[in-house]
Write a sequence for this structure.
C-alpha cells in the first residue's frame, strides 16, 4: 500500500483533533474492509487514524431501556454478549454470521455501519430496528443515516461513537450468502417495533440498504409469512451482477423476508 | 507388507516442518541483497503497443531497472514455448504465434506482461510500475470461443487466420456417421466445460540470482518440474547453458498443473538478475494470479450418442471448440486433443467414435492443463450422454451403464487407447451398495415432504494417466520424452538417499517413495531421505503432473533398487565367499543359499565402500545405482462416483447430502495418501460443477478476478466423502500402480450435474450450477409440470 | 516510522516500523517467522491466521502498529519445545495436510474453534467456522477429522494440566 501518516489516539478527543489536523484522513476501525482496500491501492489516504486504542468506543451496555453498543465493539463481542442475547437475540445471531470467525474477531459494528457496503449485514439491522447513531458531533436516526452505496450522513470530521438500539418486540435476520465472498447476496431484517413492523433489505438495492415498505404494511396488518404471499419486490431498482440478476435477487428478498418472519 | 512398506498408511514424514511452520516455500527464501520485481500488465484485452515510456518509472526512488520486450529481444532472449506439435486434419502443423516473455508490439489479454520494474523494495517497485506510460492502440476483444473463428473477428495472431490454431480430429468419421444413420435413438447435448482458475493456495513466485564469479544462474521457482524449467529456459529461451543454470523448486504449495508451465515471470526474473547484478524476487498477488496463471478447461462441445433398440451404444460423436487463450502455454495444444479425445470411449464398448476439435485463440488468459487436463472434459461429455440417454429411453442409469461396460481385457478402443485391465461392474456394484441406491426413492419422498428436491447422479469414469511412453507421445507430437529418473545412493553406514526427478507439492513423496525403498531394500524409512526439486542434486527428471509419480517415478525407484540388490548380491557373495549367483535377498538380508551365511543390508553397504574384500577389477567399489524408467503404457484408473444432493427450490441452494467413491487405482503405496488425493480431487470437481465461475465481459475484462467473486470450495460446501477402493493391479509397471492424483476432479463434475438434473427432473443446467442457475432451472421444472 | 512493542510467542519484541506494515509482513519479514503465509489479497483465504490476544485473526488485515502491547501467537509458538500441540499432532495423525501452505492458518483456526466451541464441537460447526480458511488440496474431509480429534485431545491435555 502507499505510505501514510499513522495516528493512534487514546481518546475520542484526541481522535477528533487528529481528524481536524489531517483533512481526508481515514479512520481505521477493525480494518477488515479498509486494509484490503488500501492493499489493492483503491484507497490511498495520506493519514490513517487508528481507533483501536480508544477504550471508551468499546463495550455493550443496557441504557435507557435499550442497548448501547460502542462503535469499536467487534462482531464477536456482540455475538457473544449476554446483554445482546438477552435483549435482541436476533442481533447477536446476525453478528455471529458476519464473515468468518477471524473477521468477527476484528471487524466492528461502527466500521461496518460507517462503510455502508451494499452487501453488509449490520445496516439492515440498524435500519430495521430504527437505531440511533451517536457521533462525536450529534445524533442521527437510522432513517437519515444511510444515503446510498458506501455513503452515509457522516460528515468529514465526524466519528461514529455508539449505536443505540431500542429493544423490539421481535427481530430476525435471514441471509442468503453470496457463495464467494460470504457477504449477503440478499439479507432481510424484520423488526416488530412499537412503531410498527420495519423491514430492511441489504444486498439487493442499487442504492444500498433500503426499507421494503410494501412488506412493512402487509406485516403490520398481519405478522405472518402468509402476509407476504403475492408480494413481489419491484426488480427495477434491484442490483444485477454475476452472482444474481435482479429478478433472482428480488425473488430471494421475498423468500428471506418470509424466513425472517417465520423466525 | 510391513507397517512401513508398500500398502501401509504410514503417517507422512514431511509433515513435521509444515505443521510447525518451518516449510521453505519460495517466498520464505530471501537472498542477500535481493531486489523486488513488479510486472506492469495490460489493462486492455487486445491492442497494439504504440509506445512505452519508462522514463518516469526509471527515475522513481529505489528503482534499479525497468525493462520491456525490446530489452529481452536485444539480449536475444527467446519466447515462451509450447512443447507439443499438433497437426490439423489437412496435415498442416498448428498455427502458433510467438509468446514473448514481455510483450512485443501487441498485447493480447488483460494481464499480458508488458514491462517489469526492479526496485529495492516491493512498494517502490509498485509505485514505479504505476508510472510506466503505455500508449495502446485498442483493438476489438475476442472473448467467446464459440464465435472467435467467425469472419470479421479481430485477428489475434497473424499466424493463425480466423484465430484457429488447429482443426484436429480423431477416430473414424465414416464408420461413426454410418452408425448414427442406423441408430434407433440419438441423444444430443450441447455442453460447456467451464473455464477454471487453478488457484493453488501458494501464489507463484520466483527468485533469480546471478553469480558473476561463477557466471552461473540460480532460479528458485514454484515449479512442479524444475528440470523441465531448466531445459526450456536454457535450450529454448536462451538464458544460459544448462550447466550454468541451477533451478530449485523447494516446498511448493500446490500446483494442480498450473505450476508445470514455464511462464514470463521466472524467465524475466532470472534474466534480470544479471542485468541489475542483484537477486530479483517476484511473488504473485492473488488478483495477479487470476490473470497470469494458466487457466483450465473452457470447451464448448456438441456431443451425440447413438443407441440401438436394445440400448447398446453404437457410436459417439463430438465436436469441440477448445479455448486456448491468447497464447499457447507449454502443454496447451495437447490437452484438448490427445489428452481428451482418446478418453471418449469411457468405460464402454463403443464400436465407432469420431471427434473434431478446433483449438481457438481468444483474448483471454492462456489455457493449459489443470487437474485432469482433458480427461474431465471427456468424462463430462461421456457421462452426461450416458445419463441423459438412459433417462430419455426410460432405463435405469446404473443398469444402462452396466449393459454397455467393456467386459473383456485388453480392450482396444477406437480412439488410440488400449485398456489393459479393469472390472467396472465390481466398482459399480460396490458404489451402489455404499450409496444405498435402493433407499433412494424413500429419501426422495422424504425430501419432497420437506419441500426439497433430491437427486442422485452417477459418474463411471476411466482416465489415462501415468504419462507416458516416450515413443508413443513423440509420435503424437510431444517435444520431450516422459520417462522418469531415480538414483539410489546407499551411504556407507546403510542410510539411503533417493534422488528423484519427481517433485512433491502435496503428494507426500518423501513418505511414499521411502515406503517403496523400505519394501524393496528392507531399510526402515527413518533411514531413507527422498531428495527432489534441485537440478544440482538430481541430474534430470520430468516432474510431477498427469498422476505419474507412482506409475513412473516410483517405478524408476524400483528399477534402481533392483540394480542395488543385484550389485549388493555380488558384494555379499565376495564377502561371504560364496558363488555370485547363490545369494538371495530377503527382508533386508543377503543370504548364502544352502549355507547359514548372511549379511545385513547395512553390512553389505559398508563393505561396498570399504572395498577390502573384493577385486575392484571385477566389482567397482560403492553402492549407487540409477534408472531412467520409460513406461510401457498409460495407466487406466477407473471407478464410479455417486453424488446425492438436496435442492432448496426456493433459493436454488444445493446441499450435497452424500458422496460415494469407488476407485480402482491398482496397487496403493499409501492408502491414506491416496484417499486424500481423492478427497481433494472431488472438492475441485465440486468447485467446477457448482461454484467456480470464470467470467469475462465483452471487453475481455475478467469480472471474477478475486476470491470475492470466484467461489472457492470451502469446508461447508462439501460433505465428508465415503471413499473405497477396488484393485485390479496395473500390468504395465513393476509396482502395479495406476495413479490417483486427478481422478476425483475427473469423476466429480458429471456425478454432481447428473444428481442436480435428476433432482430437477430435466437436463437444462450448465456448470457452474450456482444457486441462481439451479433456481432458474427449478422454475423451468415448475412451469413444465404446470404445463403437463 | 512507528514504534511498536508487543509479545510474540511469549517473547517481548520491539521495533521501529513503517506504519503501513501489516502484521503478517512484520511477522514474516521483520521477525523471520515465515510459518504464517500470504495466500490472497482480499482477506479470504486464511493462510495468514494467527492468534491476537487469544483470538484468531487474519494477520494480512491487521496493521502491526495496531498490535501495540498485544499478545500474538503464531504457528511457531504452538508447540512446547519439541512437544507438538495436540492440534498439530492431530493434523499429522489424520493426514489433514498435503502441500502444507494453508496448514499453519488452518491449525491456528482449529485451535481457536476449539477454544470457543469446546472439545465436543461437532462437524457442522467446524465446517461453518472454517469459512475463513481455504484449502485447495485436501477437500477438507481430513481437516475436519483432525480438528475433531485435536479438540478431544485438547480437553485431555487440559484435564491433565489441572
Amino acid at each position: 500500500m502507499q505510505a501514510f501518516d499513522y495516528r493512534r489516539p487514546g481518546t475520542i478527543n484526541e481522535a477528533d483533533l487528529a481528524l481536524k489536523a489531517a483533512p481526508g484522513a481515514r479512520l481505521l476501525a477493525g480494518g477488515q474492509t479498509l486494509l484490503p482496500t488500501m492493499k489493492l491501492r483503491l484507497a490511498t489516504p495520506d493519514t490513517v487514524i487508528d481507533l483501536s486504542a480508544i477504550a471508551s468506543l468499546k463495550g455493550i451496555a443496557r441504557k435507557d431501556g435499550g442497548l448501547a453498543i460502542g462503535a469499536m465493539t467487534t462482531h464477536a463481542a456482540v455475538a457473544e454478549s449476554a446483554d445482546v442475547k438477552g435483549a435482541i437475540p436476533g442481533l447477536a445471531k446476525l453478528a455471529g454470521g458476519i464473515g468468518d470467525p477471524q473477521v468477527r474477531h476484528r471487524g466492528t459494528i461502527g466500521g461496518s455501519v460507517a462503510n455502508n457496503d451494499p452487501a453488509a449485514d449490520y445496516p439492515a439491522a440498524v435500519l430495521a430496528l430504527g437505531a440511533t447513531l451517536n457521533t462525536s458531533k450529534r445524533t442521527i436516526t437510522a432513517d437519515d443515516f444511510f444515503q446510498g452505496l458506501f455513503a452515509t450522513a457522516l460528515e468529514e470530521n465526524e466519528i461514529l461513537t455508539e449505536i443505540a438500539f431500542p429493544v423490539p418486540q421481535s427481530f430476525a435476520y435471514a441471509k442468503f450468502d453470496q457463495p464467494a465472498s460470504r457477504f449477503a447476496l440478499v439479507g432481510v431484517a424484520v423488526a416488530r417495533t412499537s412503531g410498527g413492523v420495519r423491514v430492511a433489505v441489504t444486498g439487493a438495492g442499487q442504492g444500498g440498504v433500503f426499507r421494503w415498505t410494501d412488506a412493512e404494511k402487509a406485516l403490520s396488518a398481519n405478522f405472518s409469512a402468509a402476509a407476504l404471499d403475492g408480494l413481489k419486490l419491484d426488480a427495477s431498482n434491484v442490483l444485477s451482477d454475476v452472482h444474481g440478476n435482479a429478478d433472482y435477487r428480488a425473488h430471494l428478498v421475498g423468500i428471506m423476508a418470509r424466513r425472517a418472519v417465520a423466525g | 507388507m510391513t507397517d512401513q512398506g508398500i500398502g501401509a498408511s504410514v503417517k507422512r514424514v514431511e509433515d513435521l516442518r509444515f505443521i510447525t511452520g518451518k516449510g521453505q516455500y519460495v517466498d520464505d527464501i530471501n537472498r542477500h541483497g535481493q531486489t523486488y520485481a513488479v510486472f506492469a500488465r495490460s489493462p486492455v484485452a487486445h491492442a497494439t503497443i504504440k509506445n512505452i515510456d519508462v522514463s518516469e518509472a526509471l527515475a522513481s526512488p529505489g528503482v534499479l531497472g525497468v525493462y520491456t520486450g525490446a530489452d529481452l529481444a536485444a539480449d536475444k532472449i527467446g519466447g515462451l514455448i509450447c512443447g507439443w506439435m499438433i497437426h490439423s486434419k489437412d496435415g498442416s502443423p498448428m498455427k502458433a504465434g510467438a509468446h514473448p516473455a514481455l510483450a512485443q508490439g501487441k498485447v493480447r489479454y488483460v494481464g499480458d506482461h508488458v514491462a517489469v520494474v526492479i526496485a529495492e523494495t516491493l512498494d517502490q517497485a509498485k509505485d514505479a510500475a504505476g508510472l510506466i506510460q503505455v500508449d495502446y492502440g485498442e483493438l476489438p476483444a475476442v472473448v467467446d470461443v464459440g464465435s472467435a473463428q467467425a469472419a470479421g473477428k479481430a485477428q489475434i495472431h497473424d499466424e493463425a487466420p480466423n484465430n484457429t490454431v488447429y482443426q484436429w480430429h480423431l477416430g473414424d468419421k465414416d464408420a461413426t456417421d454410418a452408425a448414427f444413420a442406423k441408430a434407433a435413438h440419438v441423444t444430443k447435448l450441447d455442453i460447456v466445460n467451464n473455464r477454471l482458475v487453478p488457484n493453488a493456495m501458494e501464489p507463484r513466485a520466483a527468485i533469480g540470482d546471478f553469480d558473476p564469479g561463477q557466471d552461473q544462474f540460480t532460479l528458485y521457482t514454484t515449479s512442479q518440474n524444475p528440470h523441465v524449467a531448466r531445459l526450456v529456459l536454457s535450450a529454448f529461451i536462451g538464458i544460459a547453458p544448462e550447466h550454468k543454470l541451477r533451478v530449485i523448486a523447494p516446498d511448493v504449495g500446490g500446483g494442480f498443473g498450473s505450476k508445470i508451465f514455464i511462464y514470463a515471470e521466472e524467465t524475466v526474473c532470472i534474466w534480470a538478475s544479471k542485468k541489475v547484478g542483484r537477486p530479483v524476487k517476484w511473488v504473485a498477488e492473488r488478483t495477479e494470479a487470476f490473470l497470469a496463471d494458466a487457466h483450465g478447461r473452457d470447451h464448448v462441445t456438441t456431443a451425440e450418442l447413438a443407441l440401438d433398440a436394445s440400448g447398446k451404444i453404437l457410436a459417439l460423436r463430438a465436436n469441440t471448440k477448445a479455448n486456448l487463450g491468447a497464447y499457447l502455454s507449454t502443454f496447451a495444444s495437447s490437452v484438448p486433443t490427445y489428452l481428451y479425445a482418446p478418453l471418449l470411449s469411457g468405460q464402454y464398448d463403443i464400436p465407432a467414435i469420431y471427434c473434431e476439435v478446433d483449438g481457438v485463440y481468444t483474448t483471454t488468459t492462456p489455457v493449459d492443463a489443470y487437474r485432469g487436463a482433458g480427461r474431465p472434459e471427456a468424462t463430462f461429455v461421456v457421462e452426461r450422454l450416458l445419463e441423459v440417454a438412459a433417462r430419455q429411453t426410460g432405463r435405469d442409469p446404473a443398469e444402462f451403464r452396466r449393459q454397455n461396460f467393456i467386459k473383456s481385457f485388453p480392450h482396444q478402443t477406437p480412439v488410440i487407447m488400449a485398456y489393459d485391465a479393469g472390472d467396472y461392474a465390481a466398482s459399480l456394484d460396490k458404489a451402489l451398495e455404499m450409496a444405498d441406491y435402493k433407499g433412494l426413492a424413500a429419501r426422495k419422498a422424504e425430501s419432497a415432504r420437506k419441500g426439497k428436491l433430491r437427486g442422485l447422479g452417477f459418474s463411471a469414469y476411466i482416465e489415462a494417466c501415468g504419462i507416458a511412453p516416450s515413443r508413443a507421445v513423440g509420435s503424437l507430437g510431444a517435444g520431450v520424452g516422459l520417462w522418469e529418473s531415480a538414483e539410489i545412493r546407499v551411504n556407507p553406514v546403510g542410510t539411503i538417499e533417493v534422488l528423484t526427478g519427481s517433485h512433491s507439492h502435496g503428494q507426500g513423496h518423501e513418505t511414499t517413495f521411502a515406503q517403496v525403498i523400505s519394501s524393496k531394500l528392507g531399510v526402515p524409512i527413518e533411514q531413507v531421505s527422498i531428495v527432489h526439486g534441485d537440478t544440482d542434486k538430481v541430474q534430470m527428471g520430468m516432474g510431477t503432473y498427469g498422476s505419474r509419480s507412482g506409475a513412473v517415478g516410483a517405478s524408476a525407484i524400483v528399477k534402481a533398487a533392483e540394480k542395488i540388490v543385484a550389485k549388493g548380491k555380488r558384494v555379499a557373495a565376495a564377502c561371504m565367499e560364496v558363488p555370485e549367483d547363490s545369494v538371495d535377498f530377503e527382508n533386508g538380508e543377503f543370504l548364502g543359499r544352502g549355507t547359514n551365511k548372511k549379511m545385513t543390508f547395512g553390512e553389505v553397504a559398508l563393505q561396498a565402500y570399504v572395498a577390502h574384500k573384493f577385486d575392484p577389477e571385477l566389482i567397482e567399489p560403492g553402492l549407487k545405482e540409477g534408472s531412467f524408467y520409460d513406461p510401457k503404457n498409460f495407466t487406466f484408473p477407473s471407478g464410479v462416483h455417486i453424488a446425492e444432493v438436496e435442492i432448496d427450490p426456493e433459493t436454488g441452494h444445493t446441499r450435497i447430502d452424500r458422496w460415494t467413491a469407488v476407485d480402482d487405482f491398482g496397487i496403493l503405496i499409501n492408502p491414506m495418501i491416496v484417499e486424500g488425493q481423492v478427497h481433494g480431487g472431488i472438492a475441485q470437481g465440486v468447485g467446477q460443477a457448482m461454484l467456480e465461475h470464470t467470467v469475462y465481459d465483452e471487453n475481455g475484462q475478467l469480472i471474477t478476478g478475486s476470491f470475492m467473486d470466484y467461489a472457492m470450495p470451502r469446508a461447508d460446501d462439501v460433505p465428508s466423502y465415503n471413499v473405497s477402493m477396488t484393485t485390479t493391479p496395473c500390468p504395465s509397471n513393476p509396482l502395479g500402480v495406476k495413479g490417483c492424483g486427478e481422478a476425483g476432479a475427473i469423476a466429480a463434475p458429471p456425478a454432481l450435474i447428473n444428481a442436480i438434473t435428476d433432482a430437477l427432473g430435466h437436463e437444462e443446467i450448465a456448470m457452474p450450477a450456482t444457486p441462481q442457475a439451479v433456481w432458474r432451472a427449478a422454475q423451468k421444472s415448475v412451469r413444465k409440470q404446470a404445463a403437463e | 516510522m512507528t514504534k511498536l512493542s508487543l509479545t510474540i510467542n511469549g517473547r517481548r519484541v520491539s521495533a521501529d516500523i513503517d506504519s503501513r506494515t501489516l502484521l503478517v509482513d512484520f511477522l514474516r519479514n521483520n521477525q523471520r517467522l515465515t510459518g504464517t503465509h500470504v495466500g490472497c489479497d482480499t482477506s479470504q483465504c486464511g493462510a495468514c491466521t494467527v492468534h491476537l490476544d487469544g483470538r484468531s485473526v487474519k494477520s494480512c488485515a491487521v496493521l502491526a502498529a495496531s498490535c501495540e502491547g498485544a499478545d500474538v501467537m503464531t504457528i511457531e509458538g504452538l508447540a512446547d519445545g519439541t512437544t507438538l500441540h495436540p492440534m498439530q499432532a492431530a493434523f499429522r495423525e489424520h493426514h489433514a495436510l498435503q502441500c502444507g501452505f494453508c496448514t499453519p492458518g488452518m491449525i491456528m483456526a482449529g485451535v481457536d474453534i476449539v477454544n470457543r466451541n469446546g472439545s465436543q464441537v461437532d462437524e457442522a460447526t467446524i465446517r461453518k467456522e472454517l469459512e475463513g480458511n481455504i484449502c485447495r488440496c485436501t477437500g477438507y474431509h481430513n481437516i475436519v477429522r483432525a480438528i475433531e480429534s485435536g479438540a478431544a485431545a485438547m480437553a485431555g491435555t487440559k484435564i491433565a494440566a489441572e
User: Anything to note?
Assistant: The longest helix of chain C spans residues 141-161.
